[in-house]
Write a structure and sequence with these properties.
CATH topology of the largest domain: Jelly Rolls
Structural class: mainly beta
Strand content: 35-45%
Number of helices: 2
Helix content: under 10%
Distance between the termini: 119 Å
Shape: elongated
């Protein structure tokens, strides 16, 4: 009898639990029905980020769900958003592309939510990527120039600039050159990493160049290194002053040059150290072979580049700008030096790497001297105003 009672109690308990469970499910079902049935639209498909300079491009497929009429892109933890409308002529296989700019150089997480006119939405599609900027660009290296020269028959045909490049840095996609042609028009040309030599014929003035990179293959922007400048000079861009004898004036376009030129050859060849082509020699055996070169009637406080024209190869010389006349800067084997212009007929225009600026009266002075044994044949000076 007791066993029968226990079985009866168990049946009653199970029945009560079943009744309570049914009530709970009904409550949940009623709560879901009160909010209406949820309709989820198709998510953005094949989403991709293409990063750029302080911006990026988001792209995705339109999706086969025909109910979708727009997408909202959220970032900055939902504090920033952008509404993208679906064009009426778009097909499921078409790609939506949108640029988001004015971003910081950092990682961003984006959520894309599809919507229809009834307010139905998709579940968010989330994607994370980074934006690049000045910090990334600051580490980029310009492709080094091995050497450059200007070739042509002196003094008329000075048209061709020859640039020799060292190997491009890893990741460098191209190096862009910007300059002016003879007509004064802006010109740009691109040097690819496997190109070792560049020849430019129609040019004048400075050559600016920047090496360009992409942080990733699908980046929408090129990132440039810091700009570098080549300053090759044609004789026709400046004024050529042919060195004469001791304290003899040479005037070109109202600018006067005079050289002390002590103890070295004179134009009349009276001391035998003058060749038939009109050049003068500096003799190291002469105790006063260092000499000054002084310009007057220049524009006041104007910057100039100075090139020394010499005859012959494998020579060296000294130069200086100190007030005591000490030509302490040594230049050796100038025919192979970067920036030297080959003028033809074994003549070279060699740049002096210094800031030459005329004073308030329009005067500018420097000193020249022989740097080693033997002789160096100085022929003249090219004075080029800096643009």
């Amino acid at each position: 009898m007791r066993k029968i009672k226990n079985i009866l109690y168990m049946i009653i308990a199970v029945s009560l639990i079943a009744m309570v469970s049914c009530d709970s499910m009904d409550d949940i079902h009623e709560e879901f029905l009160e909010g209406g049935e949820h309709i989820y639209l198709g998510q953005a498909d094949s989403v991709k980020i293409n990063p750029g300079y302080k911006r990026l491009e988001l792209e995705w497929l339109v999706n086969a769900d025909p109910r979708v009429t727009n997408w909202t892109v959220f970032w900055d933890n939902g504090n920033s958003s952008l509404l993208v409308e679906k064009a009426s002529d778009m097909h499921p296989e078409d790609t939506v592309r949108v640029i988001i700019d004015e971003l910081e150089e950092q990682a961003y997480t984006f959520e894309i939510v599809s919507s229809d006119p009834e307010g139905n939405k998709s579940l968010p599609f989330e994607i994370t990527d980074r934006v690049y900027g000045d910090l990334y660009a600051s580490d980029l290296k310009n492709r080094p120039v091995a050497s450059f020269s200007v070739t042509g028959d002196f003094p008329t045909d000075m048209q061709t600039l020859n640039i020799s490049w060292e190997d491009a840095p890893s990741g460098c996609l191209q190096t862009k050159l910007i300059y002016h042609n003879i007509a004064g028009e802006d010109v740009s040309t691109v040097v690819l990493p496997d190109e070792k030599e560049t020849v430019i014929e129609d040019w004048q003035g400075e050559i600016k160049y920047v090496s360009e990179y992409k942080p990733v293959e699908n980046a929408i922007d090129m990132f440039g290194s810091s700009q570098s400048t080549l300053r090759p000079v044609k004789i026709v861009d400046g004024k050529y002053f042919d060195l004469a004898g001791e304290n003899e004036d040479v005037t070109v376009d109202g600018i006067t040059m005079v050289s002390s030129a002590n103890d070295w050859g004179y134009p009349d060849t009276s001391d035998g150290s003058k060749t038939s082509n009109g050049n003068c020699y500096d003799e190291k055996s002469h105790t006063s072979s260092d000499f000054s070169v002084a310009f007057s009637d220049l524009a006041a406080d104007k910057a100039y580049m100075v090139y020394i024209v010499l005859y012959g190869k494998d020579r060296d010389f000294d130069w200086g700008t100190a007030a005591d006349g000490s030509p302490v800067n040594d230049i050796e084997d100038y025919e192979d030096m970067s920036g030297t212009m080959s003028l033809g007929n074994d003549m070279y225009a060699v740049p002096l790497n210094a800031d030459f600026t005329s004073d308030a009266t329009g005067a500018l002075t420097f000193w020249l001297g022989k740097g080693g044994s033997g002789r160096t044949q100085f022929d003249g000076v090219v004075l080029v105003p800096v643009q």
